[in-house]
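Page 47, continued from p. 46.
Same chain as before, 417 aa.
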Amino acid sequence: MFGEIKTIYQEYPKTFWILMTATFIDRIGGALLFPFFALYITDHFGVGMTEVGILFGLYAAGSIIGGIVGGIITDKYGRKFMLLFGLIASASFSLLMGFIDNLNVFYSLAIFWGLVGDSGGPAQRAMVTDLLVEEKRVEGFGVIKIIGNLAISIGPAIGSFLATRSFLLLFIADAITSLITAIIVFITIPETKPEIKIENPNHSIWQTFIGYKDVLKDRIFMVFMAITALVTLVYMQMNGTLSVFLRDNHSFSTEKIGWLLSMNAGMVVLFQFWITRKVKNFSPMIITAIGTLLYGIGFGMYGFIKSDIMMFIAMIIITIGEMIRAPFTLSIVSDIASEDNRGRYMAVFSFSWTFPTLFGLLVAGTLMDNYNQNLVWYGGGLFCIIGVLFYVLLNKTFENRIILSKVEKNALEIAIE
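Result:
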């Protein structure tokens, strides 16, 4: 087993593993803070869940702007600078928010926290793309998925230990992990932005911003992003409305809910890399469609099933779908984007998460409060079926796009030589 692990390790550049280690440390900070964020807000400010929803909406709005700006700077000035800025700025705002006692000020800071907190995201994803050859990118993004779930498995336990002593310790710990990550990146990771062989030295930051026009005009990418956002709207119910639904409709205890979600994270940690290797050579769009179909089956089941064992079986189906599709979505974006606009493509693709965050849980919560709660799961299954159909329809166009892109790249290299 250790020999196999060593072989896998040697298949990737050392810089990639350093970046993954730094990413894990940073994800631990988020995983120990955010599960207790709602508890902190309601307890510290004496407000209800409406205010919590507003706060997360403001954070998501800031993230949209931060992602746009981060994508520009990533493509113009490099990945490392933007990643370092995002980490240090996020640490500063996290620490500051731990000392705020005024809710309105807290709201304002949440916008800026979202702005700086997500500004380094496009840089990190572009850096992974830069470091790995095309054949290894799907597996590389699968490693990120494992790291995120490993952090989710560990972080809340650390967070609960700190929260019982002081909520302020959560903000301090999050800031410390971000600063440790920044130090690792600064000392050990070089700039990975590819040299553009033909580039106008007078190309301004405004012209880089205008480059978003090309991203938005990319119909294949925009349709892919929109459908992914629709599917993400379904997926995010797992960490939002599902626990409330199971508690109120099926008398699921908090302990059972914890086991259900822990099973999801544990399966990803144990099996993500193995599954990614098994399916990496198949068509990315078709694999994404298959994963989405499993989402639809799993989430849709919650509208029909009654027994506890079936609740866990539905989660197993969802988790298999997650392991199949998650690495491919980012890999598809990296295949579509060219070397000089990877940051901007990754920034726009992050909207497939931030837009559902803005209103997804609010819409689902409204349905659950005022209508048949099973509508959330019926609708989730329907949305996933729509996603499957669009992914299949995009497959041929996407494959032709990749072939053409490789031909153009080779032709440009020959012309330059």
